[in-house]
Amino acid sequence: MTTNRVPTLFILGGGPQALRRAKECGAVHIDRYAEVKPEEVDGGVQAHVEDPGLALLLLDAAEKIYIYPDFAQLLPSLPRDKVVVVAPEGHPLCAEYRCGEPCS
């Protein structure tokens, strides 16, 4: 018997590069997609949201949330201890939030 575990690692935004990183570390990638290309998703878990606010519904079980600046409007609604902003050092968001690379 196999048990499916609820995902606890999420990457928000960042496009195809973030999807690749999500597959490397077993994270769920949530983003806005004009079209879903199955060959890109192969081996990963991807969720499309029209409104970034809908991503909040998927994050109840999150242990860590990596968020790209294109989803920054969600930051005030997320627990700071679980958030890592994916932005280069010196980015304005790094003054308020912890910054780093996905899956670090």
Main features:
alpha/beta, five-stranded parallel β-sheet, 2 helices
Descriptive notes:
- The chain has 104 residues and is an alpha/beta fold.
- Helix content is 14%, strand content 18%.
- It has 2 helices and 5 strands, in the order βαβαβββ.
- A 5-stranded parallel beta sheet has the order 3-2-1-4-5, covered by helices on one side.
- It is globular and about 35 Å long.
Describe how the helices and strands are arranged.
Blueprint (H helix, E strand, L loop, with lengths): L8 E4 L2 H11 L2 E4 L6 H4 L3 E4 L15 E4 L15 E3 L19
Parallel strand pairs: 1-2, 1-4, 2-3, 4-5
Instruction: Give the termini separation.
Output: 31 Å
Q: Report the order of strands and helices.
A: EHEHEEE
Instruction: Going across the biggest sheet, name each strand in turn.
Output: 3-2-1-4-5
Helix- and strand-based class?
alpha/beta
Helix content: 10-25%
Number of helices: 2
| Overall average residue pLDDT | 86
Radius of gyration: 13 Å
Question: Brief description of this entry?
Answer:
This protein is an alpha/beta fold and 104 residues long.
